[in-house]
């Protein structure tokens, strides 16, 4: 772990300690904290299973202060279909800025995808940095968005990588229908298209169930690129 990552992790942990030690009355306009955890029958990232189509358990902490935010998130992973039988856990650290202007909402930030028990050299590095910019606008119950992600050295030391995505959502009371289409472009390996379509139902403001279909146009890469249905139960507080 390099110095910048260690510093960011330390800052997140310190902020969490402050939150637990301060009451709303002491800091009514201070940072806001939220936690999430959940379970799913698969962990799909850009159309590709990260758990070899197995069960996922995840959890995270988010800190917001006005339009600035940061957080950590973790999930189990299984990269054995890619020849990595050691990496067992993903730990992401991220932060950014969410301004609004002219009816549009924006999100600009960076994320470090960290992993536990990764193979030692001379195997390729699994962790990597990614930078992103997102924009969205709501029209009544409809929301349209687009996102762009860039990594200067994608996972597995595969070079520059870009991910482009367009998405849309439609909300009716507690039910939201949504879908996205994206393209992953990687310098040293073939790129692919991916898409998903599903719905999220909010049982309460803190409990939601998402049921979603994921697919890619590269089933020949292996079963983790194939079509899959995923149900995710998520709790936030």
Topology diagram in text:
Elements: H1 3-21, E1 32-40, E2 44-45, E3 48-49, E4 56-65, E5 68-76, E6 89-97, E7 100-101, E8 104-116, E9 128-139, E10 142-151, E11 161-172, E12 175-186, E13 192-204, E14 207-216, E15 228-236
Antiparallel strand pairs: 1-4, 1-15, 2-3, 4-5, 5-6, 6-8, 7-8, 8-9, 9-10, 10-11, 11-12, 12-13, 13-14, 14-15
Please explain how this structure is put together.
By secondary structure, the chain is mainly beta. It has a single domain (31-236), classed as monomeric porin ompg (Porin, Beta Barrel). The chain has 1 helix and 15 strands; from the N terminus they run αβββββββββββββββ. It has one helix spanning 3-21, and strands spanning 32-40, 44-45, 48-49, 56-65, 68-76, 89-97, 100-101, 104-116, 128-139, 142-151, 161-172, 175-186, 192-204, 207-216, 228-236. The strands form 2 sheets. A 12-stranded antiparallel beta barrel has the order 1-4-5-6-8-9-10-11-12-13-14-15. The longest helix is centred in the first third of the chain and has 19 residues, at 3-21. It is globular, with a radius of gyration of 18 Å. The relative contact order is 0.13.
Distance between the termini: 30 Å
What structural class do you assign from the helix and strand content? Answer: mainly beta
Task: Note the overall shape.
Answer: globular
Number of helices: 1
Could you write a compact summary of the structure shown?
It contains one helix and 15 strands; from the N terminus they run αβββββββββββββββ. The protein has 237 residues and is mainly β. The protein has one domain: monomeric porin ompg (Porin, Beta Barrel), CATH 2.40.160.
